[in-house]
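G., before I forget:
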Amino acid sequence: RSNVENDRAIGLFAASVQELLVIDDLLFLMVGIEGKYIHVKQGRLKDTSMVFQMDSSMDLSLCELTKRVLPLCENYIIVSQFTETRSHFKYGLVNHAFAAALRAILQDYHAMVAQLEHQFRLARLSLQGLWFFCQPMMGAMQALSVVLRRASAKQLSGAAILNLLQSQAAAMAGDNAARSLLQKLAHAASAPYFRMLERWVYEGVIDDPYGEFFIDENKGLQKESLSQDYNATYWQQRYSLRHDIPGFLTSVAETILTTGKYLNAVRECGHTIRIPFSDDVKLTNAGARHQYLDRINIAYNFASAELLNLIINKFDLLARLRSVKHYFLLDQGDFLVHFMDIAKEELVKRPSAVSKEKLQSLLELALRTSVAAADPYHEDLTCNVERLSLVAQLQHILKDRAVFSEPNFLSELLKIDLSSLETASQGTAESLNGLETFTLDYKVRWPLSLVISRKALTKYQLIFRHLFHCKHVERQLCTTWQAHQATRGLGFVGTSMQRSYVLCQQMLHFMQSFEHYMTFEVLEPNWHIMGSKLQSSKSVDEVIQHHDFFLNDCLKKCMVLWPSILKKLEKLKDVCLQYARATQWLIPSLFVPQQNNHDPLSQNGNKSQDVKGFKGTNRLRNAKTQLTLVKTEDSNFKSVIGKMADDFKKELSELLLMLSTGSQTEPCLAHMAQSFQALGQV
Amino acid sequence: QEFSEVTEMALVRDVVYACQGIDGRYIKFDKEIDGYKVNDNLKLPKATKVLIRRLCEVGWLYRRVKEHITESLEQGPMEVIGTVGQAFCAALQEELSDYYRLMAVLEAQLHNPIPFMSTVEGAKGAGNYLSLRRLWVWLAEPLVRMRLMAVLVDDCKSLRGGAMAGAIHMHAQHGDPLVRGFMGSLLRRVCSPLFEMVRKWVLEGEIDDLYGEFFVVPQPVKAEALWREGYQLQTGMLPSFIPEPLAQRILRTGKSINFLRVCCEDQGWATAAADALAAAGTPAGGGGIGYGETETLEALVVEAAARIDRHLIRIIYDQYKFREHCLAIKRYLLLGQGDFIQYLMDLVGPDLSQPANTVSSFKLAGLLESAVRSSNAQYDDSDVLDRLRVRMMPHNEGDRGWDVFSLEYNARDPLTTIFTEFVMARYLRIFNFLWRLRCVDHALSATWQTMKPNCSIARLWASIDGGTKSQLAAVMRRCQTLRNEMNHFVTNLQYYIMFEVLEHSWANFLDEMEEAHDLDELIVAHERYLSSIVEKALLGERSQLLCKTLFTLFDLILRFRGLADRLYENAREVQTRGEIAARRKVKELQASVPYNTGFRKLPTVQLTKELLASMGEEMDVIAAEYSSLLEGFFAQLPVQQHVDLKFLSFRLDFSEFYTRQHMGTSTMHIKLKRTPKF
């Protein structure tokens, strides 16, 4: 053993000396240092595999025995290399903790080697003894090296390491020692992970310097985007799950994500909160599984209750929604009537000529003089003028598939009509006026923008524009009705007036029952259903979901999402408007004072006269001035009215047909058809 | 065999020495390879050599750490190292003393002989010997620690103060519990001087920073700029574990105390600070906050900031009457006190019409005083009135008094922090604009006063005489319509400035004042108030062109006033002449003396006719210029970004008269409006 001056082959010694020499070499090799008679060569295929070369002159049986110990040495080298490299910063917290746990095992191993040396120095160690003493370590090292080879081959980090350890422990379930070793390692390695989890679940903060946590934060999305972004991506995409979720958390990953998200939202409102119990008990993997799941659930309940409380009580969500309903769903109509009166002249302009500022100040005037002034939030209402008509905008939205990404039936439904809509919208683009493009808008601030996001607001706007235009048509028809009332005493029996009168009533009935259907049979009941659902909801996500459902349901039942029906309705409204326009011009020209009746030129001048002018004529009649029917005008009027009545009837019957065919699948269509029952029989 | 046995013990001894940085008999430090080396003369197995080399790594690392400590503590100047560096070295030193203890233990075991298989009997007592392999077990953990220290020493060599603490903090982001614990205890010691500074700054407003390590840096400035520029955040020295917003808050809290002490000469902050300390639940003795307790620090800072800021705001409001002074400025400099301004304008008007260099500022000061005395302003606080002064701006050749006159409000310390010179200059600009506007308004009213008594006469003449007088009437009528048009514009503009701009901004400012929690917010609120006025009153950067047009319009209106005055003077002359003539006629009739008046009357009539014609023409020129300028003004208005300006245009053109006029051919209109020719 002591022959340091030469490198004689081992075979020259006696077998007992050979054994001592080999043990000495092995003791070196066990801590990764190449010995004198056993050489280490790097494997050719991979860096991790090694080839040991033994002195060929060694005693054969010794040689065999030594070879059995060699895998331990190889495994040691793998483990120690792994431990050294993985504590570098770039490998992440989980790897660091893992390496630290490995180092503790290596320390035990080193101690064992020192013990063996001690025995060796006392001349109590034979090769056979060495083999025996190494047994417990052999198994452990073998199990470890399997894990480490995989980990380093795929450069795993973070949750993947934890998953690997867990699955390996599960795979080794039969081998008790190896399994408990791996579980211990998994526990140690998951400590930093649980620390991150704890901060997220208890405080809503992501403290993840190496990107290992399974929740990803998209810093580019700001909460302010909620009031502009039509897709409302902030809430969905600000925090998202990554692919590598630790196996033991997979089932609760969504809960964890939402818990932290809620806490984060509360934090964004300027409140710092901590879940009270977090100080005394830490989240660890050590306890039984149900223990930390329990904690996560408690944290979830706390967080959702906190955020819900904040939104509903502090930021007064329900009052906000009621306020939005007042304006967008025409819950309190007086402001609208007032507004339509004072903004009439501005609204009939072309959309490009409409002054938004003027409308805004008129709107404020209307708000302040109506019952809406009692609403504390009425100052947040603004107005806007869109570029497109309702139908065109719907189509635009559908192209983007932004607002209505969720209902599938829609895309099915709309594919058919998309092309026909396109042509329709192009035709009307020039003849648009402010009435068709006017819409309200509402300033919503964080955190209410979570619920009333831009997406929800767009849906509100769609309903509002629909209602607003119906209201406008109805008002026009009412004005016509007034014009008719003025002719009552004139003795129109037998003239076209009678017919016009009936038509007017039909149209009014149609419009009013349609509005009645929308407001009383769709919006109000749905609103109440939503209200009671909101009262009982447990989390903000539920609130958002109920609100969305309400809006979608309303949109659907108000026929906004049925393009073919909507188009038909638009047609009908168009006919009504044409009729109203025509009669308001023609009726005054039908009856003229007798002395003037053969002067058709002056009638043209009368065109601009509106109802008020006609009332003047009425007064003339009272003053015993004879009014007579202008025959030529009458026949003209008759033909116009006749044509319109036919149009109306035709469109209406088509609509009813559509409704009745569709009613098989959608009960709401049958509902609507019922309100037109009386009209259908005419 | 002898040789080997001795060598192992000697080698172990050498290795233990090498681990303490001392050269042994066989193992010596080699500078060339920068590491320990076994003497080449020894014939050792390769494996032993490798093991020795591994063991000696500890020694190599130790040398580096020790070197750093010696360099910094003994030789280096304190200015370079700083207190944080000092604390770092002390912490390392302590860590090393643990290491020395281990070495002492090893040293004791060194003398136990290593048993050898031949001496079986030695096995009994010789459990505690050291072999190279045993040493390896012993040194495994010190090696890890020593490595950490060496890495820190390398990384932090060139850093100081907060930057050093930040760098160490970055190293603490490690998943290994050993590393974490080690770095944590190290950082607690390293950061203690920093946290002591923070504590002192937040609670006492003093910087105790001899070597420039703190992240708040004082700047030598005057007292009035103390708040804005006195202290600044040095981001390089901000440790990464203190987030930027927290640092800002720390900065402001200390600044507030400093401000209270230096500028306000207030003592009340001390109780506020003590309250904050008590509320945050940290002991008063200091050292309560340390590394890793960022939340405690934050809580302390938040508490202290809230209390100190509340105190400061109260002092500013109650003791220095910020609100009252703002109101006074609004009333005097922004012409909120109508009767006073009216009176002042009446009083100083004649003086201001003189060339600027002849105006005496003393006389103006006297007039200001009398304006104060004779208006409601006399009931104002004398402190406020004392601060109101007349100021003459530097004048150029040909300037009139109107151009250089302005009022000034003297805000004393500490309010100069808010009303800085720059702010006052902006107030002055607004004042000049408002004064100008008011002056134009005044001129138009004066014109109305001259017109009013003459209009009935003009109507009377129109029916009597077809010649001169009807022409006069036509010119006067033209003059009246033009005045009305101008008046409409000026009144609406004034309405807009007064109600939409000044009052609206003021109301917003009052709200923000209520909500302001600290001086910074107050300053920002005031700044916003001022800039919203400047922006909306067309004085901003973007509306320079518009403002120029507006001033030209004002000049034109003043020119018009001169013309109108001359016209009416003329009219009165004609009238009196007519009266004289009538009286003379009566006299003639009475005296029945034939007296040929036609001789003398004809030329004067001719003269008046010419004069009237020229005046009519001049009026037309002014009217044309006015309408084109106004049109330009309207055209520019919607271009402006600010929504309120759109409201102005919508207001000025409420009946859409100008829009329609603009749509129709403008030349046509001017022709229509032209004074009829005779």
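Residues 496-536 of chain A form the longest helix (41 residues). The first strand of chain A starts at residue 38 and ends at 42.

More on Monday.
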